[in-house]
Amino acid sequence: MYADEFTWDFDKTVHENFLAMEYDLQLYTLAFFVRESGHSCSPVFRGYQGGTEKDGHYWMIGCREGTDWSVLLADDGYQVLNCQELEKFVGYSCLSGF
Known about the structure:
Layout: H1 14-20, H2 23-36, E1 44-53, E2 56-63, E3 68-74, E4 77-82, H3 83-90
Antiparallel strand pairs: 1-2, 2-3, 3-4
């Protein structure tokens, strides 16, 4: 599935739309967010929803380059965090549950 085959439902949240995507498109989209934030990630070889916060949903992805990322999806945008840096604050790996 390619990004132009997905029909965005503007009556749903970003997360609800993201869940409606096929897994491959979810991975492609997460990798796109990582690349748009100035980092390298392609192709993604694993990903899962890591949890929720008040203002968004975290998705964790691992890239073939060896770096794992956390992507916060919110209705007002997204934020990309390096899992190694995040681990220093939360005490566990982003992908430890995968």
